[in-house]
Amino acid sequence: MGRSKAGLRDTNDVTLRLHNTLTGKKEEFKPVEADHVRMYTCGPTVWNYAHVGNLRAFLFYDLVRRHLRVSGYRVTHVMNLTDIDDRILDQAMHAGTTITEYVKPYAQAFFEDMATLRAEHVEHYPRATEHIAEMVDMISTLLQNGNAYIADGDVYFRIASFPKYGELSHLDRAGLKAGARVATDKYDKESVSDFALWKKSQPGDEKIGASWDAPFGRGRPGWHIECSAMSKRYLGATLDIHAGGVDLMFPHHENEIAQSEAANHAPFARVWLHSEHLADATGEKMSKSAGGFTTLRDLVAAGHDPLAVRLFLMANAHYRSRVRLSQEALHASAEQVRRLREFADRVNRATLTDADHAGLVDRTADVRAAYREALDDDLNLPQGLGLVFDHLREANAALDAGRFGPLNKTALLGLIDDVDAHLDVIRAEEPGLADEVERLIAERESARKSRDFARADRIRDELRERGIALEDSREGVRWRRVAPTAAERS
Ligand SMILES: [Zn+2]
């Protein structure tokens, strides 16, 4: 049954409640297999850089997985990379290159962004174009079962064959126009349309490497089928958790359910989690197709610390509330990061008295329990963090007054550990990094003095690749964190 690792809780002692979009209610969470959670999350379409709205969803996935792990679960987490869709095809044709070549820098940028934002590496990052066989299999099954049909060489899912369609997004099918067919990957809520599972090859597809053989004709997959096929490949027919941004609920997630359940004759995802939009400064939903979108690179170039961006996206608002991106909010998050780090530093260096501040020990234990409870209650990180910040005031006062003993220190370091298990901004620096950077700065200075500028430049470039930028100032050389650049490929 429950395993207990150092610092982790036993799953038997945890009551996790998650808001399930399927039922519209908060429910107690239990995976099918005790102690092991199978989770699928919709990843990026690598046709461009991810915008911060996408990143909010990706960091929400990071919060879910971290809290599951803190709660004692083993997590198998799959996040797909969509490397073929209408937009990628258009862009590759325009650029006169193959889809594989076209998406390369954007896929790499996605992993760099995730690393810069300290998102944990998940267990599997399957790419659509590497799982065409699984998709062809599933489409063949759907054709055999009568859930799909061929029209003009394309294959469509027959919505009329799946009465549950619309259950997730609580669509009223009666009021919607049904029966139309759409070949594009995205469409409006007004038409519950038979959607494309497979699109026959068009002139030019071959040349950009976007065409595959299938028993039902040469072509390429529609967008929705990849998630059904790849989740089955890595996690089986039934998932414990499926998460995504709220904009994917319809039609994408409805389509995933229809494809998977019609093909597998098993429930698809037991719990659906949806994170809300990030709004831009004007309050509009941020989207790439609407033009005005901000990337992590933009924010870092404007001087924002990636850790502040992380804290803002994860903790400024509950994941089911909209949040608005603004300079002020990012600055406030940067200030929170600073306060947390400064506090941790202060506790670590505190001169301890023999006698503990007993009241503070008790209250720290209470806050620690309340923090965990907030996270157990549908991942309410903003609420939990609010309690912690309130508590810092009392703890700082005790430190100021010199009433701070060994038990105070242990209790507060425990609280900091709990918070950092989710946020990962307090002890974000790799141990020894500051010393190593200082050593390299000194080495660069001596290289410059001996006029070995090539060596000096090489040191600067290597640091830049690791996300450290050097700035020459009157006081000497300073360094700060920036988004890491890609290492040169040779
Ligand atoms: Zn998906």
Give the SSE layout.
Layout: E1 17-20, E2 25-28, E3 36-41, H1 52-70, E4 74-79, H2 86-95, H3 99-116, H4 132-144, E5 148-151, E6 154-157, E7 177-182, E8 191-200, E9 219-221, H5 225-235, E10 239-245, H6 249-264, E11 269-275, E12 278-279, H7 296-301, H8 306-315, E13 323-324, H9 327-349, H10 358-376, H11 381-400, H12 406-423, H13 433-449, H14 453-465, E14 468-473, E15 476-481
Helix pairs in contact: 2-3, 4-5, 4-6, 5-6, 8-9, 9-11, 9-12, 10-11, 10-12, 11-12, 13-14
This protein binds zinc ion.
Zinc ion is lined by residues 42, 227, 252, 256.
Outline the structure in words.
- It is built from 14 helices and 15 strands.
- Mean pLDDT is 90; it is low at 1-6.
- It has three domains: 11-275, HUPs (Rossmann fold), CATH 3.40.50.620; 296-423, Isoleucyl-tRNA Synthetase, Domain 1 (Orthogonal Bundle); 433-481, no CATH class.
- It has 490 residues and is α/β, with parallel strands linked by helices.
- It is globular.
- The strands form five sheets. Strands 5, 6, 7, 8 and 9 form a five-stranded mixed sheet that branches.
- The chain is 43% helix and 16% strand.
- The chain has helices at residues 52-70, 86-95, 99-116, 132-144, 225-235, 249-264, 296-301, 306-315, 327-349, 358-376, 381-400, 406-423, 433-449, 453-465; strands spanning 17-20, 25-28, 36-41, 74-79, 148-151, 154-157, 177-182, 191-200, 219-221, 239-245, 269-275, 278-279, 323-324, 468-473, 476-481.
- Helix 4 (132-144) crosses helix 5 (225-235), helix 4 packs across helix 6 and helix 5 crosses helix 6 (249-264).
- The structure holds zinc ion (ZN).
